[in-house]
Amino acid sequence: MKIPPKLLFKVQMAATLVSSVTQIGVLNWMFNYIPNICTPEAINGFSCPLARVHFNGSILWGVVGPQRFFGEGALYRPLVWAFLVGFVAPIIVWLIGRKTSSGSVWRKINLPVLFGSLSWIPPAVSPPSFALLAPTMTPAHPSHLFYPAY
Questions:
Q1: Distance between CA atoms of 54 and 56, rounded to whole angstroms?
Q2: Model pTM?
Q3: 36: phi > 0 → left, psi -120 to 50 → alpha, else beta; which?
Q4: pLDDT at 2 over 90
Q5: CA count, 13 A, side-chain hemisphere, 125
Q6: How far apart are CA 75 and CA 43, in angstroms?
Q7: Most distant CA pair in the chain, distance
Q8: Neighbours of 73 (CB within 10 A)
Q9: 62: which DSSP letter?
């Protein structure tokens, strides 16, 4: 499917504008009409935990700094290798995909999406995560055999 780039850009800009205005509108409405929002006393659990996460993260990186986490001998120093993996792995998958047939699974792997989706997995719950993925992944693979166009 070929989508004209100018049309795609216009549609993405319109979607961005609509979603931004909608989110700001909902946020302002919530601040005006939900009593005690972002406090422990908020009704229906509107305690804003994500705001605390961003606040804690900014304090952590601003005060402590990345050198203490990723510097020599630091606890998270091995995570720096993830930059290299993130750079090399898509190239390897792309090269394998070029050498295989057009229906190969290697041509359907999108590592940026795969790596990005890992951030949505709750920590330390691999059996429940598998239990959530198995019912969807199991019928998905055979469906590509019978309906390859989709």
A1: 5
A2: 0.44
A3: left
A4: no
A5: 11
A6: 39
A7: 60
A8: 5
A9: I
Beta carbons within 10 angstroms of residue 65's beta carbon: 11
- Which of 24-28, 52-56, 107-111 shows the lowest per-residue confidence on average (mean pLDDT)? 52-56
More confident residue, 41 or 55: 41
Q: What is the mean pLDDT of residues 18-42?
A: 87
What is the 3-state composition of the chain as percent helix, strand, coil, each rounded to the nearest 5?
75, 0, 25
The token pair at 70 is: 């990723």
Measured CA to CA in angstroms, residue 129 lies from 14, 60, 108, 113, 115 at distances of 35, 29, 22, 17, 15
pLDDT at 126: 52
Who's near 68: CB < 8 A, 6+ residues apart? 74
